[in-house]
Amino acid sequence: MTRVINFDKTFKYTVPLSLVIIVAGLIASQVLGLNNGVDFQAGLNTSIQFAPPSMRVSFAGEGTMRLSVTKTEVDLISQAPSGQSKAFLFTYDKYPTLQAMAEALKTAPGVQVELVAKGDIASNLILGASQTDASLTQAATVLHVRAQDATTLMIPVEALRSTMKVFGNVSIQRAGDVNNREFVIRVEDSGKDPTFATTIHQKLGQTLGQAYGADNVLVNSSTFVGARFSKNLADQAVWMTLMTFLVILVYCSFRFKLNYAIGAVLSVVHDALVLVAFIVFTRMEFNTAIIAAILTIVGYSINDTIVIYDRIREKVKLNPSSHFQENMNRGVTETLGRTFITSGTVLLSAIALYIFTTGSMKDFSLCIIVGVITGTYSSVFIASAFVDMWNTFEEKGLKKKQDLSAKSAAAAKAALEAAKPAKGGRKALES
């Protein structure tokens, strides 16, 4: 026979603990503020990588020549004035060194190549970026190569922050492994400069070029979000979350009772607020990936809560004479095996994502890990605790009404007895 765990005895500890964490998170969010990503904060988000140049490529022929760098090859696509196009594909396995690749690129009509790095470096270390996926001109386009020396262009984050001070409110994060020398720089837009995106992009390249060498800076991508768009996106995220809570309330009200529905909503609100507190205290970037993580956890948590509610309701129907707390403890205990297996499987997947990914996906997986733990916790210690509290108040209210009814009945009976004349008095009146 399964030993029943008395979860109701722990509610007086778990509920205050959750309240402390949530209140601390709300206070911290007002004092420290969220570390808003570019999605929720107007500004320019630029991904840069420090890498030495491998070669300079230019074009002086007729028509146009477009250069593209992929993971497997370097492509040149020419288009003659007549409109006829031709592609030149140079794979890394066929041209394994920078020297071989440079000589191969020269075979394309009108293309000049100046080799800068050592010729024996592997060609598959050539880096591609948005600036290299463009039309070649007489002005040389620099192709970069991944740095091999452990000390070459190893820029500390603190040094980069010092360089970026001229831009005001700037956020800098390392992207991926430290050996990639890749950073994400976010410059906040105050909304005063209508040409902010163009101006800051140019100034950013110039500042980094002056500090670390123009040929050593590779711009991977740039994303600009305007003030109006960021505000609209933030408002939509809030409304989307609130609508999710409302749908959960309506669904659970139809499937269970109102007290169950309110408990379910409180549990998912708890999960969202605890996750927000975690994000605030860890200074994790708050972006659309985090919103996706919160909504994912809300879905996971409500599923776990409904499974527990179903089992509790089943126990109440099978044992109507038993006290609600006894039925609740038995129902939650019997679902523990299923809860641990489900939560454990999700946790293993989230941990694998956290270990083997980088950037926003790593933050997303970390939020999932925290959310799965809080979601499992809230289904037992918040959702069930609220239903237990509701039933306790109902029982106390019912007992109070019964006591009042009993007192009223006793008082009425006493008054009736008092209104009856005594037996001796009645005989005296008759005589």
Report what the structure shows:
This protein is an alpha+beta fold and 431 residues long. It folds into 3 domains: 7-39 and 229-395, Multidrug efflux transporter AcrB transmembrane fold (Up-down Bundle); 43-48 and 151-225, Alpha-Beta Plaits (2-Layer Sandwich), CATH 3.30.70; 52-145, no CATH class. The protein is 56% helix and 17% strand. It contains 10 helices and 14 strands. The strands form 4 sheets. A 4-stranded antiparallel beta sheet has the order 11-12-2-13. It has a 4-stranded antiparallel beta sheet with strand order 7-3-10-8, covered by helices on one side. The protein starts with 10 loop residues before the first helix and ends with a helix. 28% of the residues are buried. The model has no long low-confidence stretch (mean pLDDT 81).
The level-1 CATH class of the largest domain: Mainly Alpha
Averaging pLDDT over every residue, what do you get? 81
The largest beta-sheet arranges its strands as: 11-12-2-13
Helix content: 55-70%
Query: What would the principal axes of the Cα set say about the shape?
Result: elongated
CA gyration radius, whole angstroms: 35 Å
Tally the beta strands. 14
Q: Could you give me the name of the CATH homologous superfamily of the largest domain? A: Multidrug efflux transporter AcrB transmembrane domain
**CATH architecture classification name of the largest domain:** Up-down Bundle
**CATH topology title of the largest domain:** Multidrug efflux transporter AcrB transmembrane fold
When the domains are counted, the total is 3
The fraction of residues assigned to DSSP E strands is: 15-25%
**C-alpha end-to-end distance:** 77 Å
Structural class by SSE content: alpha+beta
- Please give the count of helices: 10
